[in-house]
Amino acid sequence: MSTARTSSERRTLAVEIRARGRRLEGYAATFNNQADIGGRFVETIAPGAFAASLRAKGDILALVDHDLGRVLARTRSGTLRLAEDARGLAFDLDVPDTSAGRDVLALAERGDLGGMSFGFTAFDEHRDGDRRELRGVELHEISVVLAWPAYDGTVIQARSLETAAPFRRYAERALKLLELSR
User: Fold this and answer.
1) 21-68: pLDDT as tens digits
2) pTM
3) Do the beta carbons of residue 74 and residue 59 sit within 8 Å?
4) For the chain, what percentages of helix, strand and coil (3-state, to nearest 5) are there?
5) How far apart are CA 58 and CA 137, in angstroms?
6) Do 149 and 13 meet the contact criterion of CB atoms below 8 Å apart?
7) By CB neighbour count within 10 A (0-12 exposed, 13-18 middle, 19+ buried), where does 158 fall?
């Protein structure tokens, strides 16, 4: 077991994101899904990896593509809410009426978002050859990603209350394809 603090890192994954009015919700990270990190190693996130950060009550940001100039929400103001559950790091954020917020909502409603990402510093990890398990991280930010994710173990979908049915069918088909590919 290795318990060493590493430099700040970012991970991107395709996840479920739902648009509900002026809110986005979904998962910024999921547990036990493998991701190939640049051909260097395969990484998973252990359940509980975000617990210390969430208990610390620090100010965690929600950004667009890790860009500090495009803040969507933050925990300090209460516009970003984060929680760990059995699946992963769940988020719920109030989207601002800014150009970045309107763009993200429009892309979410169309199903065009690439996924979610998170910026972190690992303080507890386990390495075994080319495998790395994140067991404890200091979470700095989560980001809505407009392009491609690093983690492809989950599905992204966007849905508003009026248009939930077509996206639900898309998500069900994508999950079925994912299961068949395993």
Assistant:
1) 588 888 899 999 888 777 888 899 999 999 999 999 889 999 998 899
2) 0.72
3) yes
4) 20, 45, 35
5) 13
6) yes
7) buried
Q: Which residues contact 9 (CB under 8 A, 6 or more apart)?
A: 119, 120, 121, 122
Within a domain: 1: no
Q: 16, 84, 4: which is closest to 45 by C-alpha? A: 84
CB 132 within 8 A of CB 41: yes
Cβ contacts of 160 within 8 Å, gap of 6 or more? 19, 20, 21, 109
Closest CA to 27 of 10, 46, 13: 13
Of 20-24, 134-138, 163-167, which has the strongest mean pLDDT?
134-138
Could you tell me the sign of the dihedral formed by the alpha carbons of 54, 84, 167, 23, in that order? negative
Structural domain span for residue 119: 8-181
Q: How many domains does the chain have?
A: 1
Strands 131-145 and 61-64: parallel
**Domain annotation covers residue 154:** yes
Q: Residue 64 and residue 143: Cα distance in Å, rounded?
A: 5
